[in-house]
Structure formats: C-alpha cells, structure tokens
Amino acid sequence: MKFGLFFLNFLNSKRSSDQVIEEMLDTAHYADQLSFDTVAVYENHFSNYGAVGAPLTVAGFLFGMTQHLKVASLNHVITTHHPVRVAEEACLLDQMSEGRFVFGFSDCEKSTDMRFFNRPTDAQFKVFEACYEIINDAFSTGYCHPDNDFFSFPKISVNPHAYTEGGPAQFVNATS
C-alpha cells in the first residue's frame, strides 16, 4: 500500500503563511524519511484557502530536500499560465528529479482568477483543452506546434525534453 499527503496549506488567524509553509516543509521531510510515496501541493490565489500560488516552484524546492518522495502539483492551473512555459517547467522538474515529479493540473475554479490573469472566461473550457493539448504534445514528443483559436506558433522544441518516457505522470483535478 502506498501513502501520500495532500497539502492544502490553509491560512487562518492562528497560522501565518510563514508557519504554514514551514509546516509543509517539515512534514515533507518526515514523509520522505518515513517512506511515504507522494506529497501533493495545491495551487490557490488571493484567499485563505492556500498559501501556495506556485506549486511547481514548491515542487522544485521539495525535490532538493528529499531523496525518494514523489512530488505532485495537485492542481497546477493550466488555464492561467502559458502552456509552453508549463511544459518546460514540468519537463525540467521531471529531469531534475529523475522521474519523481507528478503533473497534476486543473482548469481555473474561479472566474475572478481568470479575469485577474487576463484569460478569456467565455471560452474557458476550450482554453483548457488547448493548453492541455500543447502540454501533452510537449511531454510525449518534445515538440509542439499549435494552431487554434488561442495559440498559434511554429513548431518548437520544448527543452529539456521529459526524463520519463511520454512525460511525467499526469492526473487532472476536477470537482463537481
């Protein structure tokens, strides 16, 4: 049986963001020592529902302080980021961790976040699909060449290519 932890990193009046992050780092260290399989970091912006706005950055830090633990971005919000940049960062984490990175991603949960990041809210699901297609092409082939309503550019090589054949393990976070 495999065990893992999911860090929501909630903020409240009794815990500052510094304390929340320190607790996450301490817990990840112990999880690695106790042979847990995975820790997952949740992305959230502008609320007390989470202290981490950049789960891929946190993943890189956690890889530097652990030896065996897989680290997942529980819900890297691909609709608020450029998909090539997401693919580059995810492949870099996959390379540097020698396959310990798990790419968990999602659509944006809040239209206020979409508007803040200047992303189209009227076609949000189509943006999600376009982003995923670009990222998945980059993971599986090392290249992408989209031509859709949201992204159009010549064929490029996403560097580094993924360490793991086909790209890092993936899962989509969804709610209903």
Automatic annotation (TrEMBL):
It comes from Vibrio sp. fram1. This is Beta subunit luciferase. GO terms for cellular component: cytosol. The gene is luxB. Residues 1-165 form the Luciferase-like domain. GO terms for molecular function: monooxygenase activity; oxidoreductase activity, acting on paired donors, with incorporation or reduction of molecular oxygen. It comes from the Bacteria. Pfam families: Bac_luciferase. Keywords: Monooxygenase, Oxidoreductase.
